[in-house]
What does this fold into?
Amino acid sequence: MKAHRPVSKSPSGPVDVLVAGGGPAGAVAALVLARAGRRVELVDDGGRGRGRGHRGATASGLAVGTGEVKIGEFLPPAARPLLSELGLLDGFLAAGHPISTGTYAAWGSTALYGRSHLFDPYGHGWHLDRLGFDAFLREAAIAAGARLRRATVLDQHGDRLIVREQPTGAVTELSARWTVDATGRRCVIGRRHGRRRRQDRLVAAYAVFPSRPTDDPADAEARTVVEAAAHGWWYTTRIPAGRLVAHLTDADLADPSLRTPQGFWHALSRTVHVRRRVAGHGPAATPVPRWAPAHGLRLTPAAGPGWVAAGDAALAFDPLSSQGILTALHTGARAGRAVTSCLADEECTTAALADYTGFLDGIAAAYQRNHAYAYDQERRWPRSPFWRRRRTGVTPPFGMV
It folds into this structure.
């Protein structure tokens, strides 16, 4: 780690657990641990998921003036029982996140098929206000007794977590009996202990088309639209800031022109169903596209003496699964419970970590089955490298380093 400032030890009191990362996984882990009576410090840089009313950001995660968008805006109906178990459901529902009634997909054919949440036992899903949702979870953790520290996690040296304090920039060493790595795909702590295996080379190029007074009210549909294409797939959904449009393809197959508004619009205009959702916009009004990794990723092992990984640090999924945020919530809760057990009785550490690892194994196995099945349904472009790579048996899941 390269530091431009001297490293100092934290002057704050000792804690039982440091939770690195204040997204859904980290906030829920901190919540569970704090409710169990543990001294918890939640380390978050404040750069994402700020509460409503934060100047310079909209409720969707689109930062005004920077074009920054935090994708990951869907929460499936199956989150309802977990939120209820955590005592968060009433507060979540009161926030008024727009509902999602299902998905339309042109997958395997040009026809658009609907999958509704009407008969889901848990009801409808939600198009999240990610800024508000992430802040809501952190506030719940703080209310339970977790201490929030505004800092960026830089690295781990031995049992010390190295952070850069906000807003001073001072580099500080933090220590605790246990650490939860919820730093997302950066996996700052887990990468020191385990090996990360990548599923493929998937990336997302995305843009948000702002809402306009002249937009057709009928466009405020409560479903996500997914459309397969020759070299990847597209999806679009309504978010509070407007309409999010994303193209998923492999990094080595991505046309460089997708990095420009004109190139992104040109590729978008070749779709059938997605382009209809942005009717009225055009190349001149297309934002500069942003890019983000979207490949499946797994850390092995994802837990060991003194540390556990949760959320994307442990398991990251292809967005086609629509399970990323739900998995972050579940793994955050289970990681918090595992560490609680380890702190209560050191002799239970091996069993607690084995149970947590088994839980992650089950999620990964289900994801791999569903991922293989979903991609196997699209066979219109047998010579396309993108689709050929995803045919069952061609590329082993999580087989690429």
The longest strand covers residues 147-157. Residues 375 and 390 are 6 Å apart (CA to CA). The radius of gyration is 21 Å.
